[in-house]
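Hi Y.,

Following your request, here is the sequence exactly as I used it, all 199 residues.
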Amino acid sequence: MAEQDGNAATPSALALFASRLSCRRFGDEDLRVLLSAGADVPALLATRSAARSLLQASAAEAFAFTATGSVMDGGTSLAVADFFSRAFALVGDVESCLAMRYEALLLRDAKYCNDLHLQVSRQEWLTFAKDSLDNGFYTIASKAFANALGHIHPSHPGHLDSANAIEEKDKINDITGLQNLAKSLSAQHSGEFSMPWIA
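Below is the corresponding structure, written out as tokens. Let me know if you'd prefer a different format.
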């Protein structure tokens, strides 16, 4: 009976999560509801596909509102992107998680380049680029490596001056090498990032 009750709770939790998304609730409490829908391995396997589809549709809708009606300001858009990146991670959707992380980085780079707390650092772009490369998203990895290189230039507000020019040059060479690898692999693959909010 306990097993049946647990299985019954799974679709109920997912339905509750769907209801919260429809009300445009994107907070930590809502992520806990999603987590409860896959409290054990069988439940997680049973709900993962449905949760992915639900999240993809909800994310596309949320950012479609932003693109067409400016319903969300920059801060809200950033919070929503962060919410969906964590939600996609919970259901094991690596592609969509990376897509939302990329969206959040682009938002921060565009709107908060002069904010010391929110501007994107070189290391953040580099970490994201390596994650994308490791997961087979080569085109987006190449773009992220380019952004990491852009943050090295002294004119960029997030640039950290280095007293060791040789060390800095080595870092540039390392990133450039990874970018060239990503470009080479990208030429052999296609169809990256099918999420509708990623150009």
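Residues 121-199 form one domain.

Thanks again,
Q.
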